[in-house]
Amino acid sequence: MAAPKWSTACLDWQERIVARKSLVPCPPLFPGKAEDALGVFKSLQVVDLPKVVVGEVERHPTLGEVCDDFVFDLVAAIFGAEDPETGKRLISEFMLLISKKNGKSMIAAGIMVTALILNWRPNAILQILAPTLEVANNSFEPAMGMVRADPELSVVLKVIEHQRQIKHLDTGAVLKVIAADSDTVAGGKASITLIEELWLFGKKPKAAAMLREALGGGSARPEAFTLYITTHSDEPPSGVYKTKLAYMRDVRDGVIDDPKTMAMLYEWPVEMLDAEAYLDPAFFYVTNPHIGRSVTVEWLQAELGKEQIGEGEGLQVFLAKHLNVEIGLRLRRDRWRGTDYWEACADKSLTLASLLARSEVAVVGVDGGGLDDLYGLCVAGRERGTGRWLYWFKAWCWPDVLTRRKEIAAQLHDYESDGDLVICSEVVSETLGLDADDTAYERPQDIREIVAVIEEVKASGLLPERGAVGLDPQGVSDLVDALAEIGLEDPQVVSVGQGFRLMSAIVGLARKLKFNGAVHDGSRMMAWCVSNAKEELGRQTVMIVKNTQGTGKIDPFMAGLNATKLLELNPVAANDNGVSVYEDRGLVVF
User: Fold this and answer.
1) Are residues 258 and 362 in the same domain?
2) Distance between CA 518 and CA 73 in Å, rounded?
3) Longest dimension (CA), the chain
4) What are the residue boundaries of the Terminase large subunit-like endonuclease domain, all occurrences included (predicted)?
5) What DSSP letter does each residue of 33-66 carry, written as one string?
6) Which domain covers residue 284, as residue numbers?
7) What is the pTM of this model?
8) Among 87, 262, 394, 468, which residue is least crowded by beta carbons within 10 Å?
9) Is residue 384 included in any domain, yes or no?
10) Prior bond of 491 cis (ω within 30°)
11) pLDDT (tens digit per residue) in 50-93
């Protein structure tokens, strides 16, 4: 038989998803294998649905009766990719991204029970890997029910409930359901793996190594496959979830040619996202292919209405989980008012060098934190000709934060990869002295690199003679000493009052963003920091605080507010002739 030729790119997926057509880009490579698998899959009973009478037999509805065609397309694609002559699987990695309440755990259980029944390898290990015990039970219970509901299956398959295992008594193969609550998954001998809720693994700092260990056995087994089934994250994608989702999108879009990988991603076409079509009940089906079966338009519409009353974070989480709208900024009710306009004011071409080239004056804001915080820096400039305020950010942290705040470790590594965050090394020279009796203090890496950035700004000649570097006065003595060594002292280095004293910057920067008077570098790190900022209102004041203590880092954003306070002073570069740009425009009123 000639080797089949196929592509897993689905270039017209946007048209297909709106037209309710299959997102599987090619027919099963081996139709006979696909039909065998569908016969098994469709016969499995769903025990959490009431029994029905068919002929003279009372039983639960089967997967064949309750599932939509998209499920059968996926099952056919997975099992129809195995060559019956060689046992080699030609497509070995799959992803289903789907909204919540579309039968995800039921589908997962059905696919893995089908794989256990059709498996030909003696003593094979099949596993459903879930991020938590609760998710693991969500997958195991329907699988267990499918076996116990069918008298014929109960003869061949033995449920070991206390171990969350199902064993095939003829082949010795075992289906295991594993809760990866710890940071490691030992073994790596499974030939078939289904990974539930990949988005939750994205929050685990060691998830990449853990999944590599769990999937290692597949490399030695030609029939092996991995299936990822997940909803969208309740936060901006991070870690292994972000990486895998980006790869799957590139395969689907034809950017990456990988015929061994297939993605079925129920998400919104760009134009529909821009038009906020996801708020229209007529289009709920786009990311809910099981609508009318496991979820209804009426329920989604009612829940959406409840969240729209309050807006904020609850609305974004609902949109992410039930309508597959990827979260960008988490818009809580108590958010900083500038958050609404932040994304629209991003200019990802803005670098430190281009900011200095475009500006007539530049200032620096710094906000330091503890060892489990970020050390934030912002260079802000006033654009020549337009007067717009330009913002470039960078941050530093020490490994302490990765161990003390494990919930955000994966995100921090993402920002490090982007080049916006430096995770410092703890290796520091013991001495800089000339002899044993003459030692010198070597400043930590974050201080050295922050000073290097400020020195670059100073060399541009754009720093003003007064109010050039604004610091949060807490815990910056080391930085003040280092700045003095490069010739920056009072009145160029100034303390910026915090708390309610930042009110003018909090309100003023939000207004600048709303009316396109400010531009920032568009980093993911800053979108996260801005989304963590919470407005706290007093009787006559506004303050910024963290929305979540410990994990909701805002230090670089606070550095931006410090820089904003300096721009409010209408500074003039030290190498200027002392004439304000606003005087040149005839805007100064005496």
Assistant:
1) no
2) 49
3) 98
4) 269-563
5) HHHHHHHHHHH-B-TTS--EEETTEEEPPBHHHH
6) 279-323
7) 0.73
8) 87
9) yes
10) yes
11) 888 888 888 999 999 999 999 999 999 999 999 999 999 999 99
